[in-house]
Amino acid sequence: MTILAMLAMASEAGGTPRCFGASARAEGKPCNNPALRLSVTPTPDEALLEPSAPCSPVRSEVPPSRCLFGVAKARATATVALVGDSHAVHWRAALEHVYRVHRWRGVTLYRSQCPFTAARTSLPGEDGTGCEQFKTDTLAYLRAHPEISTIFVSGNTGAGVVVPAGQNRFEVKTAGYMTAWDGLPASIQHVIVLRDPPHNRQTTAACVQRAIDRRKPAGTTCQVPITTALAPDPALEAAKRMSSPRVEAIDLTPYMCDSADCFPVIGGALVHKDVGHISATFSTTLGPYLLSELDARMAQW
User: Fold this and answer.
1) Which residue has the higher pLDDT, 224 or 11?
2) Please, what's the b/e burial string for 260-297 (b: 16 or more CB within 10 A of its CB; e: otherwise)?
3) What is the CB neighbour count within 10 angstroms for residue 34?
């Protein structure tokens, strides 16, 4: 049984440790469980084997490739989409909580290293061609499914794009997102941008393992300065510049960082499975806080 499954079962049974994961940094509700001070779940080695949150593949010859999560179609009050690269997919465990509370059926439209942006990828050869085709296919899919009125988008801040001579990389990325969202069909009424989370150092996993071995608190032993961990996010910037009620951003960075540092272990939960992807375990603990942020925005819809 996976760690994620065990946590889900423990949560249903009321067995999740108090203050586990993101709840340890809940704003206005300080939560400290001394029993978790030296705990790390999963360990860095276990995290590498931890699968993404479950998503049932759709067998279809019509692109793009996709999978389903959330509630079954017969029970769903709405169908929503999660679109982007692997930095969109790592939010799925958190979104699973949101979708079940709202009884939403989720469609994941994903391609590795391929954020949903009009900026052309710098991936070479077939990878680059496939990425551009994925964007075209995704737009066609959304046009063909007007029942989808809300999409969640996120992308790796480090994704490569072609930068024309004399132009700024960040500006090209920002403009690429704005153009992509402007080109969405009118049936998409809400674009929810999930800010790309902070990244680890290449050495962070080894630091965490040493802390475990030496029985030191890994979260504060191996913290990364926020100026190193958190890169400017062009998707977040695009949402701000558009100033449109159609496009809104959610930034959950405070659940991973304070004003100075970002922590690799929070409330006994390992935040990242590798350098740039949050673990499914920690993503799961973000679910209630993502729900709260989303509900505050939905109240204005």
Assistant:
1) 224
2) ebbbbbbbbbbbbbbebbbbbbbbbbbbbbbbebbeee
3) 7
- Is residue 234 reached through a cis peptide bond, with omega within 30 degrees of 0 on the bond before it? no
Averaged pLDDT of the chain? 94
Which residue segment(s) compose the domain that 205 sits in?
A: 19-49+199-230+254-281
**121 shares its domain with 215:** no
More confident of the two residues 15 and 249: 249
The partner residues of 154 in beta bridges, in order of sequence, read 84
Alpha helices in the chain (DSSP H): 3-12, 44-49, 86-89, 92-102, 125-144, 169-182, 204-213, 218-221, 226-229, 234-242, 280-298
Q: Which two tokens stand for residue 7?
A: 């946590």
Strand pairing category for 148-154 and 104-110: unpaired
pLDDT in tens, 136-167: 999 999 999 999 999 999 999 999 999 999 99
Domain containing 78 — which CATH number?
3.40.50
How is residue 65 written in tokens? 């490739």
Count up the domains in the chain and report the number: 2
Tens digit of each residue's pLDDT (9 = 90 or more) over 105-148: 999 999 999 999 999 999 999 999 999 999 999 999 999 999 99
Place of tokens 């799925």: 92
Cis peptide before 124 (omega within 30 of 0): no
10-53 residue pLDDT tens: 443 457 899 999 999 998 877 999 999 999 999 999 999 998 89
Closest CA to 98 of 299, 283, 268: 283
d(CA 77, CA 74): 9
63 with 144, same domain? Answer: yes
For residue 6, which of 291, 235, 284 has the smallest C-alpha distance? 284
